[in-house]
Amino acid sequence: MAARIRHIAISVKDIDATADFYEKAFGLKRSPKSEGPTAYRVYMSDGEINLALLQYKSEVGSGLTNSSEFVGIHHFGFQCDDLEEQQKKIEAAGGKFFFDLGDPDDDDFERKFRDPNGIIFDINWRGWAMTATKVSAPEAATEKSAENKEHAEATGGNRSSSQRNEA
Description:
Layout lengths: L3 E8 L3 H12 L2 E2 L3 E2 L3 E7 L4 E7 L15 E8 L3 H10 L3 E6 L8 E5 L5 E5 L12 H19 L5 H6 L1
Parallel strand pairs: 1-5, 6-9
Antiparallel strand pairs: 1-6, 2-4, 3-4, 4-5, 7-8, 8-9
């Protein structure tokens, strides 16, 4: 399956006022505000696309030397079925790895890249909060378990996830 745009992130100065605006103006559903490793965040969604409102803490993860001053679209994200295969395609096309936010099995994981113009985008395999194609933790465990079983049957053994990633 082709990668799908499911995430647009904007950097904001007042996360609460911005969330109020998008909720009232467009009727978007709103997640509670939370603090991630790189930013405060509120997710807004129409059910298909996740609009992430981010108030960055620093240059780490944002790539912005003065993150408190930048306002606007920061990055966008694609949900893909196979991180490693998608990364190979991105790099073959000229994209450059930028930053991993979390672990690939984490709920909020994002693998960030820069396109040839320096524009940041990210990929993940689980999708984003509040979107129809989001893979929940129990589904993810079931999918990974089925993949592991298929792989073990195909290779004649049961390898750990780190061994699979090295293969």
